[in-house]
């Protein structure tokens, strides 16, 4: 039964958010087509999305939501095993516009319907309008026939990472940004996170990656890869602005304890680049007054931390030939039971995010015991 829950919180009803490395039933994505985000009519980006979806489909069911005018094109480009569904959107960032899924010990699946304002609304947001994005969570709840919890706060999925055992990592730069929830204090936000996601311990990092246009999403800087273990975007170059951000995060993570009292083991992943937008890449994008500018020479917030953890695969971005092999070797060491698949992902980065940003895991429902 589909019901937007009223006064009861998900936690009071027994729901919580599982870790990404826990088993999934599916992965959700959206199809890129927006010409002021994706160059050359999104054709290069579409190819990158096809490769990401194909890699994840080795591991679990993949749903790709498509606007009606692109349905036939997407269906012809994507493998037959991938489920293409009509699901209108303003752009293709399923991590942020899609639902946060919750599970219950009795086998139920539910989702959180956060507010969405395109990463800042009219005060720094990346595009307008975002009306189609705003309806995606409701539509997915109806498609799956699961309960939908309405959370009256602005929050994107890329802003949080959990270990499934009571610990959440986020950044002050994003969740406490005045362009999201200006009337909420840090204590207010922590209360929302605890009551909605079932977490006890919240680790606040000050900032996300340098020049991340999402206002510092944590999933581009740091993520849980196992209970008590995180991966962190890192550079040894102390002249790079990212160095101070990563060093600051490392100091906090090394002092932190998770919800079970464990210290965190931090694995450093080398930063690609630095990477900047080339002249021909910028010239292929429609320049509109209400969209985020993408200019030649602009630095992009590239990070190998922005990978997707599937049931049997980890799909990682290939961003820099000088660093790709080193990053892949580290990720393979972190996930010895999963096959690491590298996908050329510069076209996704040109749009402002990466593989984790365009995907959203649907956790496996707990099966009732007979």
Main β-sheet, spatial strand arrangement: 1-7-6-5
Average pLDDT number: 95
Largest sheet: 4 strands, mixed
Please indicate the count of domains.
1
CATH superfamily: L-arginine/glycine Amidinotransferase, Chain A
Please tally the β strands and state the result: 19
The run of helices and strands is EEHEHEHEEHEEEHHEEEHEEHEEEHEHE
Our measurement of the CA-to-CA distance between the termini, rounded to an integer number of angstroms, reads: 22 Å
- Rounded to an integer in angstroms, the radius of gyration calculated over CA atoms is 19 Å
Level-2 CATH architecture? 5-stranded Propeller
Q: Would you give the CATH topology?
A: L-arginine/glycine Amidinotransferase, Chain A
Summarize the structure.
With 370 residues, the protein is of the alpha/beta class. It is built from ten helices and 19 strands.
Characteristic key phrases:
370 residues; L-arginine/glycine Amidinotransferase, Chain A; 4-stranded mixed beta sheet; 19 strands; EC 3.5.3.12; protein-arginine deiminase activity
Task: Draw up the topology in text.
Layout: E1 4-5, E2 24-30, H1 43-57, E3 61-66, H2 71-77, E4 83-86, H3 94-97, E5 100-103, E6 109-115, H4 131-144, E7 147-154, E8 161-162, E9 167-171, H5 172-175, H6 186-197, E10 201-205, E11 222-226, E12 229-234, H7 241-255, E13 265-270, E14 275-276, H8 279-283, E15 299-300, E16 308-309, E17 313-318, H9 324-334, E18 339-344, H10 346-350, E19 360-363
Parallel strand pairs: 1-7, 2-3, 3-4, 6-7, 9-10, 12-13, 17-18
Antiparallel strand pairs: 2-19, 5-6, 8-9, 11-12, 14-15, 16-17
